Amino acid sequence: MRSRALIGVLPLATLLLAATLLPASAEDLVDQQSDIEDKIAATEDALAAASNRLKVAAADLARVQAQLPAARQAVDAARGRLNGARDRLNLIRQQLRKLEAEQSNVQSEIDRAQIGIDRSEVLIGRIVRYQYQTGGYAELQVVLDAQSPTDFVQRLMATQSVTQTQAEVIDQLNVHKATLAAREQQMEVTQQAVEATKQEVQLRVEEMRSLVSAAQSAAEELQDLEALRSRALQVAQEEKEAELERLQQLEAAQQALQAQIAAAVSTGSGLSTGPLTWPLPGASAGQGVGWRTHPVYGYRSCHTGVDIGSPSGTPILAAAAGVVVWTRSELSGPWGNNTLIDHGKGLSTFYPHQSTFNVTPGQQVKQGDVIGYVGTTGYVTGPHLHFEVHINGVPYDPMGWFGGSRSSQSQFCP
């Protein structure tokens, strides 16, 4: 089976890199992933089918892409709340400093008022003691002891001055007491405000600790998502390179296979019209011949047979009588366990991906004989038979023997 050359290699821009560059909603990404799963299921055994590792990476990437916007918003929101809480805490601390300064000023006024009271009380005490000592007749004694009218006037004025001083001291005492009472009341209010503000500071500090923890958790979650995204992209790139290598191996294997078939089977002239029977009775054909495009990477290759899905272990029947040319175990290659049967006049049929063989090279088989069993060997993603029909080593559309057009590879992969 000869393969056409690769038409081109698309960069990782279908699902994987496209998802990282273009904005998409979670629903869009899930739909993209679902589309890829559908395409993979439709292409089954060919290298167009993505590996499980790639499918996991694609699913991880779709999930991460859906979560990243919310994670980034969560980080921004957490930082915003943290900054707001920090600003509120700073304002409250400024208010606390003002209240503490006010408290200090009020305390100074209380101290001054108390000093004034103490001094006034000392003076009043002295006056009271003086009056007690003089028996309350100090003013009369001063007047009676005057030696002259002038002395009398001077003594009387002095006595009146002492009396006035006594009244002033009492007034000052009352003022100091009133000031003390007012400042003590103000101090009580200020003290309550200070205590309330300190409690609010403590609450804000606890809030800050909680917000710092939340911001750190949000940042760590975002970091984990971005790390998973990087790993998924790395897997996708590695799988891209591995897939290209496998595709190149398939191309080489197809070319080698066609040469080997042409050399190993009988030849004939004209188009063989020999009847063929369906190798898996009751099973329907899936993917047919023609160009196949990798659902993720865009690699193109020529599919030269039909894929017939069936459970592992299902018997595979010879499409016509003939001779078994080979039974090969190429488990690390694209075909896995495969059988070639020569039906004469250039017509041959090819059966890859078997689990086990039921014939041996050189054995004569009749149409409908069990030649092997469906498996998953070679480049496959699920159990099925890849069935090919060749004429003189050239692949033809197998459906041409079952009601379709008998077109050669140059026609279905122009």
List its traits.
414 residues, alpha+beta, Helix Hairpins, Glucose Permease (Domain IIA), nine-stranded antiparallel β-sheet, two-stranded antiparallel ribbon, 6 helices, 11 strands, 57% helix, rod-shaped
Cα shape: rod-shaped
Gross CATH architecture of the largest domain: Orthogonal Bundle
Calculate Rg over CA atoms.
52 Å
How much helix is in the residues? 55-70%
List low-pLDDT spans.
1-26, 39-49
How do the helices and strands follow one another from N- to C-terminus?
HHHHHEEEEEEEEEEEH
Question: How many individual domains?
Answer: 2
- What does the main sheet amount to? 9 strands, antiparallel
Supply the helix-strand structural class.
alpha+beta
